[in-house]
Design a protein that fits this description.
The complex is a heterodimer of chains A (about 170) and B (about 425). Chain A has about 170 residues and is an alpha/beta fold. Helices cover about 30% and strands about 20% of the residues of chain A. Chain A has a seven-stranded mixed β-sheet, sandwiched between helices. Chain B has 15 helices and 19 strands. Classes of the chains: A alpha/beta (about 170), B alpha/beta (about 425). The interface between A and B is large, with 43 and 56 residues. The structure holds iron/sulfur cluster.
């Protein structure tokens, strides 16, 4: 199975919609790679720069509630994927976005608002590792280390293990 | 223990239950448009899986940007066109016959009570108006739907939304759903089905029910759903008349699908709309809603009447009732996009298109167009649009533009005065 984790970026707002993750004008692209440069380019948020170096290195996103609401576009998930971001952690997700993540074999992880808050409180560069077996997540910042547990829906886990829904469905139906 | 309508549909379509909370359903209809389908088609081709589970159950349309506006959209359309041809898809709608998916497919009789439907489009929930389970999905779900005819869901709970009272003059289904979204908030119904009940819904025609269900996703819902009844049967009659001896028999059959009296709901909300006023969104989220009066006088630059929410003949008639014999404000650009060719043609026949043109509106061909800011009326930075669409996200109709969602009556009133206006002030 894929390894999940790495340098982490924070998006500090509820209700980030898929138009903000990838604007509609790029929906005319017919390759996933073409989305790479445009991830989050329409997101206007203090202290957030989609072109920053931290953003370029990121493998994990931590955000708040109802992430990925709005349009069903899987382009939002692909825009993360082609930037090597394979984990999005939030207190809740919009249904279609969450499903699209697991369908692509990558992680949309729901943590309690309290755990999310403690991740946001970490200072400096943060790196998060995900242990799928133990269902445990470790966040390391300068001097601090936080550990929290998560639980994945068994079916979502199977999708991740199968490398996505197409593989799973092809085998099972 | 009784069942809800959704539970009955799930039970009759259950292919697999990989865990107690997850279900895999057999699909009756897989709908496709040119924004989310081409990548699915190309991926299937790449993987040597370019087949369709049942060509008669796939309905495809080019609707979001049509006719193509540039080489990229022309390529998307071509991928769809070639694919439809390759697989002999009978129900494929191209330029001249195409219209906004969620208006076109019901009009063609493709949606029936009790069906399971997916599409790579979040407003697929519109079709719940017919008592079907219809959900928006991403491209991978669509791909599996095309290839295998199944889709997986976390089993959603149902929220009962009871709408009671009598509809006030100047208030429409759009105002009702905006008000409900404000009360529930943008994620108040996540992973749930919004079951619309009550005397107000029973009195709604199919167009109003579609407007209502269309925006259920804006409260986070998997879908909206209404009980299929005589109104549904009458709408569908041309398509189902060979299956039943008369309308009564169809109605009886539909009634079997209705939620049982002892069905269990995750929540119940009752809204008495007798005193509801015309509503409007402000800011960039569909739950930011207030009475339109509170914003009366704010200047607008453009009016957009169309989309899967409010681009049907009933909507055009309503707007025309205000526009008739008037001229739109000098500084306003008015755009009408009838949602389908049949609607366009009907509007022509009824003289409605002339009313729009005489008062200064531009009338476009059926397309999604400016609704998603891709063509046909994109806003410039700082501009404001009074729109009958369903999303007011930042940048939705053009970077830096502001979208105020409202009913067709309210949009028409704004066109005439050039500012946000309570439509009741202009009603004939
Ligand atoms: S009209 Fe707008 S909301 Fe409806 S399907 Fe088209 S783009 Fe989506």
């Amino acid at each position: 199975m894929k390894e999940f984790g790495g340098p982490t970026i924070f998006i500090d707002r509820d209700d980030i919609n898929t138009d903000e993750i990838i604007p509609a004008k790029y929906l005319t692209e017919i390759s996933k790679r073409a989305l790479k440069e445009h991830l989050l380019e329409d997101l206007h948020l203090d202290n957030f720069d989609p072109l920053s170096e931290t953003m370029q290195q990121a493998k994990v996103v931590v955000t708040r509630s109802n992430f990925g609401c709005g349009s069903s576009r899987e382009h939002a998930v692909w825009a993360f994927e082609v930037n090597d971001i394979n984990v999005v952690i939030g207190s809740s997700f919009a249904r279609i976005f969450r499903q699209n993540m697991f369908n692509c074999g990558i992680l949309a992880m729901e943590l309690s608002e309290q755990d999310i808050e403690s991740l946001f409180e970490l200072q400096g560069d943060v790196s998060i590792t995900v242990n799928m077996e133990k269902e445990e997540l470790t966040a390391i910042a300068n001097k601090n280390k936080i550990r929290c547990n998560f639980s994945l829906n068994t079916f979502d886990k199977k999708l991740v293990q199968s490398g996505g829904w197409l593989n799973y469905a092809d085998k099972n139906y | 223990m009784g069942q809800t309508i959704a539970e009955k549909i799930f039970a009759s379509h259950l292919r697999d239950m990989p865990t107690p909370g997850n279900m895999v359903l057999d699909l009756d209809v897989v709908m496709c448009h040119e924004i989310t389908t081409p990548i699915a088609i190309m991926d299937l081709m790449d993987k040597g899986m370019d087949s369709v589970f049942d060509a008669s159950k796939i309905k495809a349309v080019i609707d979001h940007v049509t006719p193509a506006k540039d080489s990229k959209t022309a390529t998307q359309a071509k991928i769809m066109r070639d694919w439809a041809k390759r697989h002999n898809l009978k129900d494929f709608f191209d330029v001249g016959r195409n219209g906004v998916c969620h208006a076109l497919f019901p009009e063609k009789g493709f949606i029936r009570p009790g069906y399971t439907i997916i599409m790579g489009d979040s407003h697929t929930c519109t079709h719940g108006a017919f008592g079907a389970f219809a959900a928006g999905v991403g491209t991978t779900d669509l791909e599996v739907g095309i290839y295998k005819g199944v889709c997986a869901f976390r089993v959603p709970k149902t929220m009962k939304i009871e709408v009671t009272g009598t509809m006030p003059n100047g208030v429409s289904a759009k105002d009702v759903i905006l008000f409900i979204i404000k009360e529930l908030t943008v994620n108040g119904a996540t992973d749930m089905i919004m079951e619309f009940r009550g005397e107000v819904i029973d009195s709604f025609n199919m167009s109003s029910r579609m407007t209502l269900c269309n925006m259920s996703v804006e409260a986070g819902a998997t879908s909206g759903i209404c009980m299929p009844d005589r109104i549904t049967a009458e709408y569908l009659w041309p398509f189902i008349k060979d299956e039943y001896k008369d309308i009564d028999e169809a109605v009886d059959n539909f009634t079997k699908l209705h939620s049982d009296d002892d069905a269990e709901y995750a929540a119940t909300h009752t809204f008495d709309i007798s005193n509801l006023e015309p509503q409007i969104t402000y800011d960039f989220k569909p739950d930011k809603v207030k009475n339109i009066k509170e914003m009366a006088g704010d200047r607008i630059d453009q009016v957009y009447i169309g989309s899967c929410t409010n681009g049907r003949i009933e909507d055009i008639r309503e707007a025309a009732s205000i526009l008739k014999g008037k001229t739109i404000a000098d500084h306003v650009r008015g755009i009408l996009t009838p949602a389908t060719p049949a609607i366009y043609s009907q509007a022509l026949e009824e003289g409605l298109i002339k009313i729009f043109m005489d008062c200064g509106f531009c009338v476009l061909n059926p397309t999604c167009g400016a609704c998603l800011g891709m063509s046909s009326g994109v806003l410039a930075e700082g501009e404001v649009c009074a729109s009958t669409t369903n999303r007011n996200f930042n940048g939705r109709m053009g970077k830096g533009g502001m979208v105020h969602l409202m009913s067709p009556l309210s949009a028409a009133a704004a066109a005439v005065t050039g500012v946000i206006t309570d439509p009741r002030d202009l009603l004939p």
